[in-house]
């Protein structure tokens, strides 16, 4: 599938909208709880990818899994942690808490790449990390004062950006060593590992047919399809564009939970989230501008 730049932008917006339906959908489940929710969503994601990926990449996708080596399986473990922690966190705390915490992913990736690979960070990125840290500290401070499930859920949600940061760092290191990891088969491995890990914890099954329909929809529409489409978009869009558009998931997700499940975000979450997202947007925009100036100067030279 080949896309023009405007169509890739539109498709990436659609992808973020599909990602954002998890929270509001989880609020309409009748009986399924915690690890059972994760098990069914991961299983339906796996089954969907077993159909979708051969259509995109042919049967060679299965050879990529067999021959991917340790790095692909490490990436798969990271995906499984993200799948599991995300849904468990949604059962413990608000959609807004989870999504704002996940928005830390790009900055945590930058820090981890600095620590493990030695990537140098620009001054603007350090500033963005500081501002986002203040936002998260403000939001987490309110959660710690409340205690209970809210605090636990927010801490579980923090596993998602940490696993994502490790995932991208592993991919970058492998690419630097001349080994390319195809992330889409790694997602399929992650769905498999997440389903296997949560199966023993899912008993006794309590999901109603209504729940299973919703969870099947999450596996297909919220993960499998947007995963495949985002890979197509990433071939056309620049990294800053993808990073900025991905932040729409936070906005869409909070809005959908507010509108579709009457879950109004707390003022502390909105304030802390504004600091996090503002820091990310400014960092990406400044980086984009700097790259444009460098390209312009190199052409003129």
UniProtKB/TrEMBL annotation:
The chain crosses the membrane at residues 7-26, 38-56, 68-89, 95-113, 125-146, 152-171, 183-203, 215-237, 244-261, 267-286. This is Permease. SUPFAM superfamilies: Multidrug resistance efflux transporter EmrE. GO terms for cellular component: membrane. Keywords: Membrane, Transmembrane, Transmembrane helix. InterPro entries: EamA_dom, EmrE-like. It comes from the Bacteria. It holds the Pfam family EamA. Residues 8-139 form the EamA domain.
